[in-house]
Amino acid sequence: MSFKCIIFNTCVKYNDSSLFVNDNVADTADRGLQFPDLCYKHLTSFVFSHNTIKKYWLLMASLESIGRFILQITASLRDTIYFALLVITRIFQLSSYNSATRTVLVNQIYFTSVQIIPAFLTASIIFGSLFIGIVFHALKGLGLSDYLGNVLMGLIVTEISPLFTVLLLTLRSASAINAEIAVMKVNNELHSLEAFRIDVINYLLLPRIINGMVSMVLLYSLFSIVLLISGIVFSGVIFGMSMDAYTNILLNSANFYDIVLTLVKCALFGFFITLIPIRFGLRTSDELTSIPVAVSSGMVNVFAAIIIIEVLLLITKII
Q: Which helix (H) or strand (E) holds 173?
């Protein structure tokens, strides 16, 4: 049975109730058209119209989803900027640094920067030695020994060292801060502090954020020193270079502007890898199941912030 015959049977079955009336049959006869042809024409027109409406609604749903996502990103960025400005204002207020705040700050620096030194030094020596050895060997193989100082100071010290340090610090401390604040929010510990008229920002948040900035700069400096010491060893083994020649190359390649910009980048890294986890921890609801959601969302946004800061400062350096 042909497709038109199937349509004809369907149209005859539902002629009185849905698709056509008897006058349409008479009109088709006057125009020399067969009734199945008219059924086929109207049915295909209906299917085409239905598909068009379906595509239209799918398009509208997609645009709505994109718009909702943009609004969420905009609102999140606005809240983050507002919270950052509030914290920066507190940082430059001398009244924020009472004895309790100073005690918490010292403890946070000890937990973040001092306790991690053995593991951080081990990772720095292993990674730094491997990386320096690979880079020096590649430079020798490509005949680019004259660019040794530029690669060391322009790439390894100013780009690789901050990135390696911020990744380690993020994985160790940022996730812990996020979980800590989220648990305190769920257990109503923040409300308890407010009930005793303790400023949550000065006592709880400010020391952690300052600690992130200080620890990031200190650990970056330590990692850079380890890399440069590894460079002394590998420059002598691969290039047969003396320590004095190596030191002169580093001093001639050092750029004060790049070093200052790198320190600023480290401070920004430390600021945002603690600010963002704190903010997402404070957004946790009163349910325990919201803690892992807050931690995962906070960590995703931390890594996004790292990429954005790196790209923006790289553009600044190029310009």
A: none
Residue with tokens 């290039």: 239
Q: Determine the Cα–Cα distance for residues 269 and 261; give it in Å rounded to an integer.
A: 12
Tell me how crowded residue 128 is: count the other CB atoms within 10 A of its CB. 25
Alpha-carbon separation of residue 132 from 152, 157, 162, 168, 230 (angstroms): 9, 11, 15, 19, 7
Q: Are 284 and 182 in contact (CB under 8 A)?
A: yes
Residue 264 neighbours by CB under 8 Å, 6+ apart: 313
pTM: 0.76
- How far apart CA 6 and CA 111 sit, in angstroms, is 79
Report pLDDT digits (tens) over 78-116: 888 888 899 999 999 888 898 889 999 999 999 888 889
Please list the alpha-helical segments (H only) found in the chain.
Answer: 3-13, 22-30, 35-91, 99-109, 117-142, 148-151, 161-169, 175-186, 189-195, 200, 206-238, 243-253, 256-282, 290-318
Distance CA 267, CA 221 (A): 12
Separation CA 45–CA 180 (nearest Å): 62
